[in-house]
């Protein structure tokens, strides 16, 4: 939809007013999280875009702490599910329990009935648990017995997984990985940041307290505003070119990537790239998307949606290399 300069100006004012809670959340998170700004930013993008987030990184990089702390900054219900190989679907979604005195069954709801779900070490759960979680993530509802229960908004699954451990893990099926809007690879902190972490964790006896500084209503209002952010047709075509280049690289002067890519991004990649770009614009208090927004979130949207061939693995070409090459080649509007 074409918008006038006046429409954009009014939208900017609304965003400026409605995004105040983001800086309050960042201030609270900075009490316990040192550095890792990209990870925090991606968690906020997921929250504002109504998209689930998968954090991948070696143990000890504050993945779980960041998710737990983000949930604590908002007046909303939070639950943590520690995934293990012996977990059952009922442990996640709940089950029917027989009440002997009343001679009837009643529903005991599981930890999935919350606003923020921390799915810790998600790749440790077997297939049945993964499928139960899949319905909740995609349909935003849970079926127990013959009845389906809607999950309350905001509903966000924030999952962690350890990429180096293979013992007792179940690789996530492509269908489930694709349900995550963003896959964020969390790296090591800088030397300066790690020095701050050492001081923070060795000098004080009590951990800093995270206070709730935003309401669920503020988050829902912000999500509506994110949807109304303006995306020009040229930006839409840029998003489409990037995604189509993962499917048909030879049409974008990227014939050398053809043997490297087993499958490209689905339409869900295009939708999520547009939504994440809008959320990134919102975080920067803008009512319109620019190409740099798209480029900034591109890797987190696409890295789990491109399948590599054996030839790519043989030549040590990873998904990051392919996305970099696509961003270098596809024409920027």
How would you explain this protein's 3D organization?
With 333 residues, this protein is α/β, with parallel strands linked by helices. The protein has 2 domains: 191 residues, Rossmann fold; 101 residues, Orthogonal Bundle (Helicase, Ruva Protein, domain 3), CATH 1.10.8. The protein is 47% helix and 17% strand. The protein contains 14 helices and 13 strands. It is globular and about 70 Å long. 37% of the residues are buried. The model has no long low-confidence stretch (mean pLDDT 86).
Task: Kindly report the name of the CATH homologous superfamily of the largest domain.
Answer: P-loop containing nucleotide triphosphate hydrolases
Share in β-strands: 15-25%
Shape: globular
Number of helices: 14
Strand order of the largest sheet: 3-6-9-1-10
Domain count: 2
Work out the radius of gyration.
21 Å
Sequence stretches where pLDDT stays below 50 over 5 or more residues: none
Summed over residues and divided by their number, the pLDDT gives a mean of 86
CATH class of the largest domain: Alpha Beta
Task: Note the main sheet.
Answer: 5 strands, parallel
Helix-strand makeup class: alpha/beta
Would you summarize the structure shown here?
This protein has helices at 5-18, 20-29, 37-49, 63-72, 89-93, 127-139, 174-177, 191-203, 216-228, 233-247, 267-283, 291-302, 310-314, 319-329; strands at 52-56, 74-75, 78-82, 94-99, 104-109, 116-120, 141-144, 147-150, 156-161, 180-185, 214-215, 261-263, 307-308. The protein has 333 residues and is α/β, with parallel strands linked by helices.
């Amino acid at each position: 939809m074409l918008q006038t300069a006046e429409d954009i100006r009014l939208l900017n004012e609304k965003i400026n007013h409605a995004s105040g809670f983001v800086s309050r959340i960042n201030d609270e998170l900075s009490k316990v999280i040192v550095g890792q700004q990209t990870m925090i930013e991606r968690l906020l993008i997921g929250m504002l875009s109504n998209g689930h987030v998968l954090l991948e990184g070696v143990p000890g990089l504050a993945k779980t702490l960041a998710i737990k702390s983000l949930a604590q900054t908002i007046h909303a219900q939070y639950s943590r599910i520690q995934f293990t190989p012996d977990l059952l679907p009922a442990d996640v979604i709940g089950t029917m329990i027989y009440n002997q005195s009343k001679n009837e069954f009643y529903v005991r709801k599981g930890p999935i009935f919350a606003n923020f779900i921390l799915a810790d070490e998600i790749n440790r759960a077997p297939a049945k648990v993964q499928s139960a979680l899949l319905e909740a993530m995609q349909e935003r509802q849970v079926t127990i017995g013959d009845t389906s229960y809607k999950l309350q908004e905001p509903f966000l699954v924030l999952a962690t997984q350890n990429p180096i451990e293979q013992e007792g893990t179940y690789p996530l099926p492509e269908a489930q990985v694709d349900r995550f809007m963003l896959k964020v690879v969390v790296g090591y902190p800088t030397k300066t940041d790690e020095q701050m972490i050492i001081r923070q964790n060795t000098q004080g006896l009590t951990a800093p307290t995270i206070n709730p500084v935003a309401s669920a209503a503020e988050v829902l209002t912000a999500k509506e505003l994110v949807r109304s952010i303006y995306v020009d047709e040229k930006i839409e075509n840029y998003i489409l070119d990037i995604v189509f280049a993962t499917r048909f690289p030879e049409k974008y002067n990227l014939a050398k990537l053809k043997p490297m890519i087993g499958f490209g991004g689905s339409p869900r990649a295009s939708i999520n790239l547009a939504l994440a770009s809008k959320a990134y614009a919102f975080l920067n208090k803008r009512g319109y998307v620019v190409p740099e927004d798209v480029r900034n979130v591109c890797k987190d949207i696409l890295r789990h949606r491109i399948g590599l061939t054996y030839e790519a693995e043989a030549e040590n070409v990873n998904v990051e290399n392919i996305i970099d090459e696509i961003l270098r080649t596809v024409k920027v509007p």
